[in-house]
UniProtKB/TrEMBL annotation:
One of its GO terms (molecular function) is 16S rRNA (adenine(1518)-N(6)/adenine(1519)-N(6))-dimethyltransferase activity. It is found in: Cytoplasm. Its EC number is 2.1.1.182. GO terms for cellular component: cytosol. It catalyses: adenosine(1518)/adenosine(1519) in 16S rRNA + 4 S-adenosyl-L-methionine = N(6)-dimethyladenosine(1518)/N(6)-dimethyladenosine(1519) in 16S rRNA + 4 S-adenosyl-L-homocysteine + 4 H(+). This is Ribosomal RNA small subunit methyltransferase A. InterPro entries: KsgA/Erm (IPR001737), rRNA_Ade_diMease-like_C (IPR023165), rRNA_Ade_Mease_Trfase_CS (IPR020596), rRNA_Ade_methylase_Trfase_N (IPR020598), rRNA_adenine_dimethylase (IPR011530), SAM-dependent_MTases_sf (IPR029063). Keywords: Cytoplasm, Methyltransferase, RNA-binding, rRNA processing, S-adenosyl-L-methionine, Transferase. Specifically dimethylates two adjacent adenosines (A1518 and A1519) in the loop of a conserved hairpin near the 3'-end of 16S rRNA in the 30S particle. May play a critical role in biogenesis of 30S subunits. Its main location: cytoplasm.
Amino acid sequence: MHKDIATPLRTKEILGKYGFSFKKSLGQNFLIDPNILRNITEFAGLSKDTAAIEIGPGIGALTEHLARTSGKVVAFEIDQRLIPILGDTLSPYDNVKIINEDVLEADVKAIIDEEFAGYEDIMVVANLPYYVTTPIILKLLMERLPIRGICVMLQKEVGARISAKPGTKEYGSLSIAIQYYTEAEMVMTVPKTVFMPQPNVDSAVIRLTKREKPPVDVIDEDFFFTVTRSSFAQRRKTILNNLTSQLPSGKEKKEYILEALSNSGVEPTRRGETLSIKEFGALSDALYPHFN
Ligand code: SAM
């Protein structure tokens, strides 16, 4: 086994050798604690039959743990300066492919088809760049990739919103969007001291396991997401007031909304944060005929 990249000493050595300077704008906070990396790969449930997708390998701290514990790794790295460094640090591993691309622009589905033929178990595992956590997770879920799930480090506050249950102050349209596709768990919180440089916020690891099918069967998914977003537009407002101000205008709009609330068994004075995904599903289907 080779010496870990993710120790303070080795990381400093690599950064010094290449004269690398961190770009804050790319969310570059590298992990310098091998124990945390072991925890992440364990939570991800990897084996040699698993193919792993990583976003933002940095200098390869997590990538090498993925290379050791899974069958094959494909990693997307936006920063071109890191590509030669990764070529060096990951040279002991022959099951890693680095793609120098912005993951938000990449055709991930085509890359899975091309690189992971024969793998039935595919996991996304990453220490995400924090400036773009939510768009990355939503992209991976909405493109309906053939993955088992996503196990990633992110800002603790975003992790709390993603895994929040109804009735809590963190629960909102992000919790619903993600829990529509997955079962979400926050599996670990992580101190700032395991990063170089240290981020300003606390971190956590979340595990998202894709559902076989959504927890509610809705007429139109896009409309369901419009209704959930509208319901949380102003958290202190009632669901009736939020929907009335957010849904497209038209004659008798308020009457339609009141009727739909009544048909789906939701009191108009409730707030969005008290509704379960199932209640939002019923409400969105009741509203659908009047707004489409
Ligand atoms: N995995 C490494 C680690 O744990 O030490 C680095 C993680 S660092 C938090 C995030 C990495 O994502 C950086 O290497 C950064 O350059 C890269 N990155 C930022 N935006 C990206 C994007 N849109 N697509 C791909 N990689 C990105």
